[in-house]
Specification:
By secondary structure, the protein is mainly α. The chain has one domain. It is built from six helices and no strands.
Length: 157
């Protein structure tokens, strides 16, 4: 929800952009708070850093696309996918029930859907943008389920 709000606010130069961005950047801390219970401070902090980086790269990509700076957008996209690889490797490294390949595939799908959403918003294709938002929500819920399943299995909860 907050990623979509950021895209909308950035695309339309809304006066709430800074507040929306601040709220979006609370998500990594929220994740870390929950992961800390199972994986300790160092792992929770590392995930928080990776997820914050993920969101900041996405913002840079949206801004480059909005400015029609193809070279910068391509560079940010490459960095974004490397960040997804880093997240997948990190998650697989802390939980034996999580596979690098599976997380990479889910994260790549997430990146493609999110970038598509931004493109639709930037080109004023609002009906398709709204439909794509449902796809992002469903995909995010799938990742949340995968994360929860892995924690439940690892800790016999």
């Amino acid at each position: 929800m907050w990623t979509r709000s950021f895209i909308i606010s950035a695309a339309a130069d809304m006066p709430d952009l800074q507040m929306v961005t601040q709220r979006l950047l609370r998500n990594p801390t929220d994740f870390a708070t929950e992961l800390r219970k199972y994986y300790g401070n160092a792992n929770a902090d590392r995930f928080e850093d990776l997820l914050r980086e993920h969101l900041l790269i996405a913002a840079d990509l949206v801004n480059a696309a909005k400015a029609e700076n193809t070279q910068e957008a391509n560079e940010q996209r490459e960095i974004w996918y490397q960040n997804a690889d880093d997240i997948a490797e990190f998650l697989a490294g802390i939980n034996p029930n999580w596979s690098v390949t599976e997380w990479r595939n889910m994260l790549y799908d997430h990146l493609q859907i999110t970038e598509g959403l931004a493109e639709l918003r930037l080109t004023n294709e609002f009906e398709r943008d709204i439909a794509q938002s449902d796809d992002i929500e469903n995909q995010a819920l799938m990742m949340a389920d995968k994360m929860a399943e892995g924690i439940l299995k690892q800790f016999n909860i």
